[in-house]
Amino acid sequence: MKMKPTLGIGLLGLVAFGLTASLSGSFSSNSLIHDIINAQQADTTKKIKLPADADPNSDDWKGIDLSEKPPIQPLSPQEEAKLFQLPPGYKIEPVLTEPAIQQPGEIVFDNDGRMYVLELRSYMLDADSKNELEPTSRISRWEDKNNDGVYESGTTFVDKLIFPRFVLPYGKNAILTMESDQDNVYKYTDTNGDGKSDKKELFTNKYGRSGNVEHQQAFLYRGMDNWLYSTVNAFRMRETPNGIIREKTGSNRAQWGIAHDLEGKLWFQGGASGVPSYFQFPIHYGNFDYKDELAKGFTTPWGAPVKIADMQGGMDEVRQPDGSLNRVTGSAGNEIYKGDRLPKDLVGQLFYGEPVARIVRQINPVVKEGLTTLNNVYQDQKSEFLRSTDPLFRPVDMATAPDGSLYVVDMYHGIIQEGQWTPKGSYLRTKIEQYQLDKVVGLGRIWRITHDSKSRDIKKPNMYSATPAQLVAYLNHPNGWWRDAAQQELVARKSKSVIPALNQMALSNKNLYARIHAIWTLEGIDGLKSATVTQLMKDSNPKIRIQAMRAGETLVKNGDKSLESNYVALLGDKDDEVAVQAMLSNKFLKIPDLEKNIKQTMEKNPIAGVKLVGEQIINPPKPRNMGPFGSPELSKEQKAILERGELTFNELCSQCHGNTGMGKDAGGGKLLAPGLSGNSRIQGHPEYAIRVVLHGLEGAIENKTYTGGLMAPMKDQKDEWVADVVSFIRNGLSNDASFVSPAQVASVRAKTSKQSVMYKYPQLVKEVPEEIALSSDWKITASHTANTRVGGNVSPNTAFTYEGWSTGINQEKDMYYQIEFPKEVTLSEFLFVSPSSIKRGWRPDPKSPPTSIPMITTFPKSYAVSISKDGQNWETLYDNLKGSDGENTVYLQQKKSKYLRLQLKETPPKGENDLPWVMRSVKVYGYK
């Protein structure tokens, strides 16, 4: 349906004016928006004073201009376009603007070329990020039905979202998304074809984190390797017939943006760093540090003069006299250009936005001796690919479009720094108030960049209705977007009929990229065979040998050991990049004699890439403290537990459950035993898996039978043995759950000592504790309650908010947190997460190493746990528990109670300041 919206854009209050959109890309009246801005401001200028505690001689404030300034006012898209600066021959034009969309943060095209827009309508509506977690954001879908280049027809696909983290098309009329401070990814589907989702299904859980909206996972992204990735999260996931599976990866250190290049390597985009975060090698091999991966001068942006100097870092970050940014401080929305309608020298180049500098940067990745160094293409000219003198230009995402051009998402916003870093009295807050940037909200533009040498491709993709043969042909398309979409559609359909055609394309097509996509399509439809991989590993093109190794890893993981000798042989390949890839694959697959083979390779091939990778495989570097963007490292003890558990699993459990835990095929569509990877029961309460290992399980599971018939009891094994194997299947088989200790096993063993026969599933689930879901009839109170961050909203009658709970001030003796249940329940465990956080207002020192990030701990130093049936008479279960950073579990001894209280036992010593008590992801387990 064609959308005819009226403006409703935050503080501008345009609804009252009844202004409608002209979807040709402009406002119906350019002057009206100026009038509205002025109507919202009592004064045309703002008098600004230096904060009382500011040092005018410090780097932050020295040289600041505090004179009265007229407010920054938005321009129409046509006026803004005049202020863009592009290289000769390039043009930029709007394809979708406000009022149809507001505050866009990401765009993604589905396989029919329809454009989904992530609209972050609650982002920074004032300098305190007030109401940032209100359900006012949405995901819209747009089409250019008359093929004139403008997206004039749209619908609200999903509405009333709380700061959504991403949008990913997942089928013809379906998307995946999740909200801030939530843990679940949902699939939204339009079942009746009206352009609006009417069905919501859980896709996966344990995916999110809470905290500042800039620090949460974002950009769910489908890689060429058929896995799904996101920023922040150090794992990848994939849908299989037996459920969602996961594999751990390196830490991507990213915030806002993921892209893959022409050969499928992922490129993650930093945020506060202002530069790409991880790109050196595919992330599933872990992290490798290369100190020279950024060319000299790379961190210097060359934006156009914007005059206003609104930099969070203060005057030290301002280039004088033009008021532009002198060191990158924010980056977003990367893309490797894969299209066919811009000059060929742009293909394979990396583009990303720096919204603080108001630039889009073009990067040339140079590979030498197996290592990649990034170069700013326009550095010598002291310029950038795209820049603007409009202070409101905020490029936050890029995309290669179906028409072969490059799209740029411009939030066109006054403030581009979350409220945690704009406190009253700060330098940035002073500049915001001086130019009244907080008044410019609710806008947004999406731009198309073209070149005089070629017009855009007007052919519309219709891949959802294309035949498998047509999709295979699209793998040879000159526009990489079409190749990606065709592969995704073939993999989604699991089209076995095209395997012969794909094999032929993979082995002999003249187009390198068609061959690469054919290889990964075969991998995605389970059509890749070891004979094909072996042949590809001997291909004359080194890039194909690399792809064969990467795709062949799936076969080795599934038990095909015949390929291992090929991986070892390729360590001696004469091509630098092939040798480096062979080292990575040997490490990932844990091929025998790894260290010996790596050392031999380093002796025979002394190039820089082989040396760096080899040394870091043998002696991994100490993990960097990446603050909220890193992932917690396993302890030495935890790694040992997983190693012991994996050994047992491979020797015993894999015979029925499969090498990857996905279940072994027994023929006829049956499995020998249930899949453990991605299994919600396995990742749920640990007692479920402990009971099964101790006492066995037979019969149907959730009405599904398995040919193996039963799981034999293992109660003769020691507690440590059981704890190791259960910990491995909960944490090492693409699952993400807590470890299990021998003490837990001993407790369950004692509790179930009278279990003399194998469990039946219905009996088992009744005896295992389950999560008691938070509901509105819980009464939660606390001695102190505050926002867990700027932008959070504290409900007046509860100590629980969307993002968790905090004392808000330093810990003091007798502070408490209490839950009153509507009726008595038998309590088993109380779980909460106390995450470390960056001190508010802290900004990175470019001269300091990453390990210098100051982190504030928020766990309770010492606390007691008590229960009560009447709220008057209390039983103390623990008198002096010590909290820990991250996840905390309190075992409640299966006591029946109506009240549960946690109370601090001491005030931390003087000098230990900035220690609030924070609890997030609170869960209660028990028996109803």
The CATH architecture of the largest domain would be 6 Propeller
Give the number of helices. Answer: 19
> Which CATH class of the largest domain?
Mainly Beta
Number of domains: 4
Q: How many strand units?
A: 42
CATH homologous superfamily caption of the largest domain: TolB, C-terminal domain
Derived from helix and strand composition plus strand pairing, the structural class reads alpha+beta
Rg calc: 29 Å
CATH topology of the largest domain: Neuraminidase
The percentage helix is 10-25%
Describe this structure as you would to a colleague.
Helix content is 22%, strand content 24%. The strands form twelve sheets. Strands 33, 34, 35, 36, 39, 40, 41 and 42 form an eight-stranded antiparallel β-sheet that branches. Strands 1, 20, 21, 22, 23 and 24 form a six-stranded antiparallel β-sheet that branches. The chain is an alpha+beta fold and 928 residues long. It folds into four domains: 10-443, TolB, C-terminal domain (Neuraminidase, 6 Propeller), CATH 2.120.10.30; 468-622, Leucine-rich Repeat Variant (Alpha Horseshoe); 634-768, Cytochrome c-like domain (Cytochrome Bc1 Complex, Chain D, domain 2); 779-927, Sandwich (Jelly Rolls), CATH 2.60.120.260. This is Sorbosone dehydrogenase. GO terms for molecular function: electron transfer activity; heme binding; metal ion binding. Pfam families: Cytochrom_C (PF00034), DUF7133 (PF23500).
